[in-house]
Amino acid sequence: MITVSLCMIVKNEEETLGRCLGSVAQHIDEIIIVDTGSTDGTVAVARQFTDRIHHFAWIDDFAAARNYAFSLATSDYILWLDSDDIFREKDREQFKALLQTLDPAVDSVSMPYILSTDEFGNSTSVIRRNRLVKRAKRFQWIGPVHEYLLVHGRTINSDIAVTHCSIRHDSDRNIAIYEKRLAADEKLSPRDLFYYANELKDHARYREAITYYEKFIATGDCWIEDLLSCCGRMADCYHELNDPQRELESTLRAFQYAAPRADSCCRLGYYFLQKNDLAAAVHWYETAAALPQPHDAWGFTNRSCSTWLPHLQLCVCYDRLGNYELAHQHNEKAGEYRPTDQRILYNRSYLQPLIQPSSSRSDSYA
């Protein structure tokens, strides 16, 4: 069976580090913690799991810190996590099985990264990351912020998920690093342009975000998944700026680059629903509902758009069209994902009398 080093960089993570390490420590041969300047009890928590604790002077460069952590590993493979990540029980058992069966010829194992879930446990935002890599390949992290692990060779895509369970987040950290780089007249890479635009959007600086999304597209050096995400995020910005025409244009822009995705179809469905063009809205929501769920997508994926959301919106559309049977059917499909959603429960109670045979309804009102 292969051996695994868990390599982590941390700073002021006393609230989450123990939960993270506890979710995977029993299956790890070596835990390496690189602290980048904690002032709380992070190091004390780490000591409960390992004596391999090192320190790295923070230089506003996440890749540099991660590469240092990787350089300290001694096992066959390296697993990386952030302190607010966990393996849930099902994924932990799958991870254990993977370690027992993994072909040593594999260079990297990718895993879904669940960034958010709804109150019913459905994953709503997912991205795939290279998570377990062969140490001998000496793969390197690239980028001071929103860093990525550059891998090559034989990769397998697993269904083992890492779940992000953030308690708090330093929302200004990343944008401050980018703006420090810009103030020093540093030229941002296409990838950095995209992620800086995302930071601007998250800070409600929508017009600036649009400017940088356009700069990203203009480079012509765009990963297709980032390009598609860029179009959707620009549409979000125009929505916040109350510019429905440009919101529509940004949504349709994604169709230049790839076949329609569920999130773009839902955006179009919403656009036409707001205009009360129900036939068009139904077309786009039906298209979204019919698309297969993305399991191996590497870009950001909103799974709501390929699960419950189009069905709930189709319930609204068919109700307005007077087709209560179809409205009921789609409401029930949405309910398979969100069984206690109050909107779905209300729709059910509203629609049930409308889909009963006419004789039953007359009897009930007699």
From TrEMBL:
Signal peptide (from-to): none
EC code: 2.4.-.-
Pfam families assigned to the protein according to its UniProt record, in alphabetical order: Glycos_transf_2, TPR_8
Record keywords, A-Z: Glycosyltransferase, Transferase
GO molecular function, one term: glycosyltransferase activity
Residue ranges annotated for the Glycosyltransferase 2-like domain, each copy included: 5-141
PANTHER family linked: GLYCOSYLTRANSFERASE, POLY-BETA-1,6-N-ACETYL-D-GLUCOSAMINE SYNTHASE
Protein's UniProt name: Glycosyltransferase
Organism: Paenibacillus oenotherae
